[in-house]
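Lecture notes, part 5. Sequence design as translation. It can be helpful to think of inverse folding as translation between two languages: the language of shapes and the language of residues. The source text, in structure tokens, appears below.
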């Protein structure tokens, strides 16, 4: 009878261990499914900011063209309607604003050339980390454009010139 009790106890013990292992494995499997990293929302956010920055880039390009035109001959025309305008100071201001707009364009071009859309062989977490980094970078570009556009728009308005509207998105590089 002792042998029978030990056999039953050993069988029950094996079943308990097996059930416990099965429960732990099931929990791990379910947890891993729930914690799967999804980078698509962050990728969409990066692309949405990129699209906005591209539109701002078109507007910046328009303001740059207006400033370039003023530097070539437009200051004389503006001086006729605004005799108190200090054209030397205006020229310095226009060159400075044009540089800010151009710098924003250059940084956007650099970001776009460095952007990598190939994630083969990378984990979802590595891809998410990459998109989080890109989101930070493109948000900085957005801020840079916003600052340069505000300054250039304000100056154009001060000269009674309507700031440029955004150019067609096709006029810039696409990702």
């Amino acid at each position: 009878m002792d042998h029978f009790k030990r056999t039953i106890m050993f069988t029950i013990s094996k079943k308990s261990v097996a059930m416990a292992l099965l429960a732990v494995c099931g929990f791990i499997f379910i947890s891993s499914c729930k914690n799967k990293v999804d980078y698509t929302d962050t990728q969409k956010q990066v692309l949405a900011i990129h699209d906005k920055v591209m539109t701002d880039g078109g507007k910046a390009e328009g303001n740059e063209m207006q400033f370039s035109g003023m530097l070539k001959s437009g200051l004389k025309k503006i001086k006729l309607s605004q005799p108190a305008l200090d054209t030397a100071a205006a020229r310095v201001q226009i060159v400075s604003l044009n540089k800010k707009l151009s710098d924003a364009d250059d940084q956007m071009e650099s970001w776009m050339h460095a952007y990598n859309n190939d994630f083969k062989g990378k984990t979802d977490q590595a891809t998410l980390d990459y998109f989080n980094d890109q989101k930070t970078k493109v948000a900085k570009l957005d801020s840079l454009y916003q600052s340069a556009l505000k300054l250039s728009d304000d100056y154009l308005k001060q000269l009674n010139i309507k700031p440029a509207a955004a150019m067609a998105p096709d006029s810039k590089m696409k990702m």
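The translated text above is only one of many valid answers, since several sequences can fold into similar shapes. The CA atoms of residues 55 and 166 lie 6 Å apart.
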